[in-house]
Write a structure and sequence with these properties.
Helix 1 (about 5-15) packs across helix 5 (about 90-105). This protein is α/β, with parallel strands linked by helices and about 130 residues long. The chain has a single domain (about 15-125), classed as Oxidized Rhodanese, domain 1 (3-Layer(aba) Sandwich), CATH 3.40.250. The chain is built from six helices and seven strands, in the order H-E-H-E-H-E-E-H-E-H-E-H-E. It is globular, with a radius of gyration of 14 Å. It starts with 5 loop residues before the first helix and ends in a 5-residue tail after the last strand. The protein has helices at about 5-15, 20-30, 40-50, 60-65, 90-105, 115-120; strands at about 20, 35-40, 50, 55, 80-85, 110, 125. It is about 40% helix and about 15% strand. The strands form two sheets. Strands 1-6-5-2-4 form a five-stranded parallel β-sheet.
Amino acid sequence: MKIKTIKSLVDEAMKVVNTIEPKKAKTFLELDNHLLIDIRDIRELWKLGTIEGARHIPRGMLEFWLDPESPYFKSDLKVDMVKILYCASNWRSALASKALMEMGFTNVMHVQGGFQALVDAGFSVQKIESK
């Protein structure tokens, strides 16, 4: 049995997802109805913080929280809201964006370079205390 590597899955995702530069994310976030979503693990947020104003949705809960039919649906995460995802680099956010597209979301994109690229572009970091 031949399995797909994570690199091949990410390469496939990168061919179909909308990847934006951090500066473009800043422009989009000035508009209404755009949400920046941090999909990193909570331990990454404890260690490095998150982008100020971002909504943390752990990668493992993303589809559940955004699906109105799911018992875990978060009603404040409106279906028509434009979702801008990021992770540490951009592999997980590419895969997550592709999964959301497969669910039927057309208003999803992810940030090239992830968290550090956003920081380097001047986004403010908010510290997150561990519990």
